[in-house]
């Protein structure tokens, strides 16, 4: 019944910051010392919510512990739940980190659930506690399945809330990049486009490559298509050939 109530609270959440309250609920529901949700994106963006002492959170950031944290390293390497006892704590840095974490109340036992999301996102849901091995084994055996379920639903909600609050990225093309892609989309070859813009083909290539990079395009045709779909350039319908593709299709 408690799990259903928690999932209902999760469903009602309408702001990313509410995940903090949910981690407190999770900690209390399962009677552990801490529950923590940590989001890592491929571009370095992070969110962290949980019940660790703020002093420890600040210390973790200041000492850049993420570089040596066996839990983070272990979760990057695994897809299944990670019991902290299975990790490599043998290095001097890892031992010092563990001692520091325990001193700040993190607990000597932990179970982390890695979740992979879109675009290289990695999220972790972690339960930690101070107890003996036998008691922790009982906790893991009794609750692992529910935490796996919670981890995935919590991450889905976090992704949704993050997407709602983040403005859509704008990709600013320079005027020359817009002109180059527009003329290419109209079916002109590179030599003709360079002539129309009164620049060398070498300079034209630089503009095209820059536009491709900004648009994340695989080739020139892909760049034109993305620019059109995102409203960055306007190409008349006459530019398309009978098969519906772009005339003068290029593959570089």
Automatic annotation (TrEMBL):
Q: Where is the HTH luxR-type domain?
A: 166-231
**What terms describe the molecular function in GO for this protein?**
DNA binding
User: What is the protein name stated in its UniProt record?
Assistant: Regulatory protein, luxR family
List membrane-spanning regions: none
Keyword vocabulary terms for this entry: DNA-binding, Transcription, Transcription regulation
An example Gene Ontology biological process = regulation of DNA-templated transcription
């Amino acid at each position: 019944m408690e799990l259903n109530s928690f999932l209902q609270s999760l469903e009602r959440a309408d702001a990313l910051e509410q995940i903090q309250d949910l981690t407190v609920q999770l900690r209390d529901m399962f009677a552990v010392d801490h529950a923590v949700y940590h989001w890592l994106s491929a571009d370095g963006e992070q969110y962290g919510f949980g019940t660790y002492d703020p002093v420890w959170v600040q210390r973790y950031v200041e000492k850049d512990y993420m570089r040596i944290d066996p839990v983070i390293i272990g979760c990057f390497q695994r897809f299944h739940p990670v019991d902290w006892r299975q990790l490599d704590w043998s290095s001097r840095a890892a031992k010092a980190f563990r001692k520091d974490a325990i001193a700040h109340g993190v607990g000597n036992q932990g179970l982390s659930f890695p979740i992979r999301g879109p675009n290289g996102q990695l999220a972790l849901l972690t339960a930690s506690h101070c107890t003996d091995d036998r008691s922790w084994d009982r906790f893991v055996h009794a609750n692992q399945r529910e935490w796996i379920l919670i981890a995935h639903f919590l991450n889905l909600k976090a992704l949704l809330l993050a997407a709602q609050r983040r403005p859509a990225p704008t990709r600013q093309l320079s005027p020359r990049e817009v002109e180059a892609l527009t003329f290419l989309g109209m079916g002109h070859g590179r030599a003709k486009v360079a002539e129309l813009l009164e620049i060398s083909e070498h300079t034209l290539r630089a503009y095209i490559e820059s536009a491709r990079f900004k648009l994340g395009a695989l080739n020139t045709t892909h760049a034109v298509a993305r620019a059109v779909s995102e409203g960055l350039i306007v190409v008349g319908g006459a530019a398309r050939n009978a098969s519906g593709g772009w005339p003068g299709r290029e593959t570089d």
